[in-house]
Structure formats: structure tokens, C-alpha cells
Amino acid sequence: MKTNINLFWILTGFFALLAVIYVVWAIIDTGQVEWVGAVALSLCAVLSIFIAFYLLLVYRNQGGELAEDRYDAGIDDGDAEQGFFPPWSWWPIILAGGAAVAFLGLSISFWIVAYAVPFALLGLVGWVYEYYRGNFGR
After folding, report:
1. For residue 19, how many C-alpha atoms fall within 13 Å in the half-sphere facing its CB?
2. Which of 20, 36, 43, 123 could form a disulfide with 95 if both were Cys (CB 3.0 to 4.6 A apart)?
3. CB 22 within 8 A of CB 35
4. Half-sphere exposure for 55 (CA within 13 Å, toward CB)
5. CB 124: neighbour CB atoms within 10 A?
6. Measured between alpha carbons, how far is 45 from 11 in angstroms, rounded to an integer?
7. Cα–Cα distance between 29 and 18 in angstroms, integer?
8. Which range, of 72-76, 91-95, 119-123, 132-136, averages the lowest pLDDT?
9. Are 66 and 58 in contact (CB under 8 A)?
């Protein structure tokens, strides 16, 4: 995490320097400030400060070193439990298809959403209750 904190502080300095160079260059080229780019680059610097400060607070309060910060750590030390995901389930594909068509309907025409929502709900219910029926029922 120390490396991530240092990277975001470096990004902060980079974006701040780039914002200054951008403003000076725009003034030299056109005689006025180009506000969209100047504000965007300045906000990138501010957001990098936010992330670096947050990571610094988390690092101080976590009560120990992470595996990636130790030189004697092995590969298995950083292997955290990610949860259980059934490898043979088809329900996420149905859910993703229904959600994709629903978002497509929001951008094209709203009536398409009415056809997509039942598929998305079917995929969601099927995925949630997959282990409560058939061979896996309890």
C-alpha cells in the first residue's frame, strides 16, 4: 500500500505541473486561458490528492503491513478469500444479457426495457436461488 500511496502523490504532482504548463501554453498560444482543460487537469490533481490521503489514512489504521509491502512475503500471503462462485452456472449470462438489453433500451427506446426486465429478473432470481433446488436443495 505504500507504493500505491507514493504513486498517487507522484500523480498529484504530475497533474498539478501539467495544469500549470497547460495554462501557460494556452496563454502563450491564444492569449487567454482555456478553462475546460485547465479545470480538468486541476481536478485530476485534486482527485489524486483525495485518493492518496484516503490510502494514507487506511494504511495508518489497518494495524499491520500488507503482504505486498513486505520483502519476505510469499505469493500465498496476499491470496485473500474472494468468495464462492459456481463455475458451471449459466444464470450470470442470462442476467448480463437482460441487463445489456435493458440499458440498450434506455438509450434507444424505452419500450425495449419492458422486454428486457423479465429476462434480467429471471437471471437474478435463478442465480440467487441456484443452490436451493434440484441436486443442491436443502
Report:
1. 17
2. 123
3. no
4. 16
5. 16
6. 7
7. 16
8. 132-136
9. no
- C-alpha cell read off for 107: 438509450
pLDDT tens, residue by residue, 51-96: 999 999 998 888 777 777 788 888 777 777 667 777 788 899 999 9
Q: What is the pTM of this model?
A: 0.56
Asked if residue 41 lies in contact with residue 19, where contact means CB atoms within 8 angstroms, the answer is yes
Distance CA 121, CA 115 (A): 11
Q: How far apart are CA 45 and CA 10, in angstroms?
A: 10
Q: Give the span between the Cα atoms of 97 and 74, in whole angstroms.
A: 40
Rounded-to-integer distance, Cα 88 and Cα 104, Å: 27
Contact 3, 68 (CB under 8 A): yes
User: All 3 cell numbers of residue 115?
Assistant: 422486454
Q: Where are the domains of the chain?
A: 2-68, 91-128
CA distance linking residue 84 with residue 94, whole number of Å: 19
